[in-house]
Amino acid sequence: MSSQEAYELAVKGLLGPDGKSVPILTGLRCIHFQPPNFTLEVQCLNETQKYLRKVVHEMGLELRSTAVCKGVRRTRDGPFTLQDALTRHHWTAADVMQAIQQYRSKKRSKKGSRTLTDKAVLQTSEETLTVSQENEADKEPAIAEVQCS
């Protein structure tokens, strides 16, 4: 397959990377503890519910006990929070379009405010450093609450 053919398939969404990236935990915090129950806030990249349940199980094993995941609730996925979520009765074309427009306007306003700080960085630093900082800011991890006992 030529690179042009591969590009055209990728643009259509028919071609992508083989397999999924390895999950990475970037943060773990106990936000509620009332023995034997506890709730964790987990910040991670490329995770699944199955992976989070396995992490809780392994925590129990490390503590020479048992830990069972009672529920997983995603509170943020990249830039999207629970406030951005649409309930089932809002899954209409008009509501989805409105949510997309709100997201784009919020993203534009954030980008505008970030551009001012980036210009200040440019005066004291190399341009490549600023670009890499912008790219890293776009890679926000997902946050999930995991209820355990």
Comma- or semicolon-separated keywords:
alpha+beta; 5-stranded antiparallel beta sheet; Trub2
Structure overview:
- The protein has helices at 3-11, 49-62, 93-124, 127-138, and strands spanning 24-34, 37-45, 69-77, 80-81, 142-148.
- It is of the alpha+beta class and 149 residues long.
- A five-stranded antiparallel sheet has the order 1-2-5-3-4.
- Mean pLDDT is 76; it is low at 115-138.
Task: Summarize this entry quickly.
The protein has 149 residues and is α+β, with helices and mostly antiparallel strands. It is built from four helices and five strands, in the order H-E-E-H-E-E-H-H-E.
Helix content: 40-55%
Query: In terms of structural class, how would the helical and strand content be classed?
Result: alpha+beta
Please tally the helical runs, counting DSSP H or I stretches of 4 or more residues. 4
What gross morphology would you assign?
A: extended
State the total count of DSSP E strands.
5
Q: Can you give the mean pLDDT? A: 76
Elements, N to C (H/E): HEEHEEHHE
Gyration radius, to the nearest Å?
A: 20 Å
User: Span between N and C termini?
Assistant: 52 Å
Return residue spans where pLDDT drops below 50 for at least 5 consecutive residues. 115-138
With strands numbered from the N-terminus, the spatial order across the biggest sheet is 1-2-5-3-4
> Strand share of the residues?
25-35%
The overall number of domains is 2
Major beta-sheet overview: 5 strands, antiparallel
InterPro entries: PsdUridine_synth_cat_dom_sf (IPR020103), Trub2 (IPR039048)
Protein name: tRNA pseudouridine synthase 2
Region (Disordered): 127-149
Organism: Goodea atripinnis
